[in-house]
Design goal:
- By secondary structure, the protein is mainly α.
- 81% of the residues lie in helices and 0% in strands.
- It has one domain.
- α1 runs antiparallel to α2 and α2 (70-84) packs across α3.
- The longest helix is centred in the N-terminal third of the chain and has 62 residues, at 3-64.
- It is rod-shaped, with a radius of gyration of 30 Å.
- The chain starts with a helix and ends with a helix.
Length: 151
Amino acid sequence: MPQWLQWVLIAAGLIAISLLLVFIVRQFKVLKTERARREKQMAFHAERRSSIVESLRLLALAIEEDQVEYSEACLRINGLLELVEPELLTRPPYNVFAQVHEQLRHMPTHKAREETDKRFIRKLDKERFAIETRHAEAIRQAAAALRHHPF
């Protein structure tokens, strides 16, 4: 093999090695960026979950201390549990939150409530208070269990 061909092959090999090295460095940077993004997203989700669990515990405590209407608490707890552990809503004693939510689902809230006729709102409130009274003991028991539930 002539010497010039050896030098050409050596140069081609060095160019191939250089190109592969550039490709590897770029891929490493892409992987590093993706890993950092994934870790940031996981930290966000962990922080969000922790915040939701804290809200659940505070709502449960508020129920136990009669600082909140049971219907309002059930609606909020149902929504939060759907985000964190939806399977709890099908198991006793936690299923009372889903039951009350289902019974109150048709009632207007927020702006829709403000725009509804006052007599109709009084009728709905009477119905809501009856639901609260009917489920009061189960709601208190579920709140106590929720406050001590290991999420």
